[in-house]
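May I ask you to comment on the folded chain given beneath this request?
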Amino acid sequence: MDADRTDEGATDTGPTVRQLDFVEQEVRRQLVGRRRRRDRDRSTAFALQLATVGLSAAITVLLGVRVDGAAREWLADSALGLGALITVLAAWQAFFGHRTLWIQRSETVHRLEELERRIAYHRAGLGGAAPEAGQVDGFLAEYERIARLDHDAWARIRQASDPQPAAADAVLAEGARTD
């Protein structure tokens, strides 16, 4: 392959083309991973919600069935076991926050898709000319802003589900004041 050509066959007119290619590829790479995680979180949130509602309905039915003897004890024991399972699923739901992560990841995917469209539109308008360095730097800065917002949102979600890091931070802050 010619040293003057990019992988897509367009003439490489300089470092800004390679930099634009880099930003575009990075955005695409992140989109693949973020979409996969978003879809996994959506499926998990739905499954957990459906499971807790379904198990709650099953408990209601089990406790409402009118039978005598050993069958009655078995139904009550089953309802008790399902109640314990619901508690575990609710704790899982609260700790991992799949619904909240799904919404947050959807926002990140949306922002990355917008950036991807803007880059493609900009590239289409170049007509083979090299992009301006300032524009490419702007695309990179926007990508980094999106990544930072995503990380910050993820950290807030994780801190909200686990109060221990906040307590540890308070202890560290208190220690810093006494020094």
